[in-house]
Specification:
The chain has 341 residues and is of the alpha+beta class. The protein folds into 2 domains: 145 residues, no CATH class; 178 residues. A 7-stranded antiparallel β-sheet has the order 1-2-3-4-5-7-6. The two termini are 35 Å apart.
Amino acid sequence: MLIKKKKIPFVVAKDLQDFLIKYKKYRPLPIAYSDLFRYSNAIAHYDRFGEDTLWNTLFYDPSDRNEIYDGLKAIYALLKADGDLSVMAHLYIDRVDLCTYGNTQPFRVRIVNRINDNFDYFYLKKADASRVYGLELEDLVSPNHITYLIYEDTLIEEHIAGMPGYQFMNEYLQRKQLNKTRLGKEFVKFNERCFVRLLGDMHANNFIVDVTPDFEDEHYRIRAIDFDQQSFEGKSAVYMPKYYKENNPIIQIGIETMTPETVRQYQREERSLIATRIKASYYALNALVEAMRKDTISLPENEKRLKTELADYYKDKRFEKAHNMGDILRLSLSRLLEESE
């Protein structure tokens, strides 16, 4: 699967902003995304194996550094402690990195506890409505909680811990401890989650694998870490991770360990779980989808193609009557509630 055209960013419209204000995600921030471009120098950042990470570590003049670093600490306090700066007394900003590949140019901030050297990360990005919808849908209909804040054109995201998908496939699949059946099952469920909520571009660079040792074995959770392609593309296959060649090593494991009947069982399980989450977050999710229905987050040709393909896939002509991506998503989620009744 190849996405040929660059994703278009969309501004956060008033209805979405009103939603974010109501649910306390839209809050004034001490510094903005643009402030971090005031750096005076940058060097390539290498990982512990000496490989170029394609991130640059930034350096700021003393006249700017204190202001920027204090602002970043205050942002972290908002993200983690509802703005209580007293719990940040022992923290300091260790590093600010800028991603040099791709189009969005996110900043990654490394913050460290000077008492025990424990560290955490968070990100500053330019706000894009598609990404905000994706983050909120992840929080509401996936099994994963995610924390983010937004103000004007600045988006703050917490770090999602886990092994990048490409690294997991390169380093982990040959381990004797690997439970292939559990991994295959989780990929099927991840594929279903992405397809139902229309999150695209989930190749191996855009998700992580969280490995949790169980008392007898290992458990795997695949989590999206990039939400730019929420409800934008017109090809239905874009929303299915199983069609990305970068994911073939995990897909092959699924082919080896599961039958078509087993795959269908896991798909039904995940759709039932998503339906339960929809019911649990009904009011917030309904408000979010209504904002999306009034919004523009895709192109007319993409909307036309997607509703036609989904109408054919589900054998459901209601998709053909959808006016935009919000309508399409609403029907995709509504079908799960109908199936669960």
